[in-house]
TrEMBL record:
Domain of life: Bacteria
A Gene Ontology biological process term: response to stress
InterPro entries for this protein: ArsR-like_HTH (IPR011991), HTH_MarR-typ (IPR000835), MarR/SlyA-like (IPR039422), WH-like_DNA-bd_sf (IPR036388), WH_DNA-bd_sf (IPR036390)
GO molecular function: DNA-binding transcription factor activity
HTH marR-type domain mapped to chain residues: 9-146
Stated name of the protein: HTH marR-type domain-containing protein
SMART domains: HTH_MARR
Length: 165
């Protein structure tokens, strides 16, 4: 058994990161093997823009539950690679509305078969699990949206300090 698995709850964030890294490496290798210059970090925002467009930066951040700076970083990369375009909103000049560029639209049919394969493999792996990982993640995310991990740890530390006095 590996050491992180032995550490159980203590290494939960590290194990999630390790699992994420395994996926990112495999997905990146798949994109490269397919001859596509596409970064795994772009996928969720790219798909959201493809399905929603035109969409504002803040809406992307809200829909994905990620920070505005993280969205800006990815959209800057997508723009630099010619996959999206941005225009100012006609109703609010401060808003940037994002859509797929012609290059981004042309890349969609090349990406879709890969994404379909990712979905099929994930469904197959999830079907073999005793506890459905996606449902478990959703439950953890819901709990953390009610009260974040830091606040929970602080409460636990107060209980421990009170008990130890």
């Amino acid at each position: 058994m590996d050491f992180m698995a032995e550490m159980a709850e203590l290494a939960m964030a590290s194990r999630l990161r390790r699992l994420s890294d395994m996926y990112w490496q495999a997905v990146t290798a798949t994109y490269r093997q397919s001859g596509l210059d596409f970064d795994v970090r772009w996928a969720t925002i790219f798909v959201l823009i493809a399905r929603q467009g035109p969409v504002a930066v803040m809406e992307i951040a809200d829909r994905l539950g990620i920070t505005h700076p993280a969205v800006i970083q990815v959209i800057n990369e997508l723009e630099k690679n010619g996959l999206i375009t941005s225009t100012k909103s006609e109703t609010d000049g401060r808003k940037r509305l994002l859509t797929l560029s012609d290059t981004g639209q042309a890349m969609l049919p090349k990406l879709q078969p890969l994404w379909d394969a990712f979905i099929a493999v994930n469904k197959s792996m999830l079907a073999q699990q005793t506890h459905h990982l996606l449902q478990s993640l959703q439950e953890m995310e819901a709990q953390l949206s009610e009260k974040n991990f830091f606040d929970r740890v602080q409460e636990e530390l107060k209980k421990t300090n009170t008990t130890n006095l």
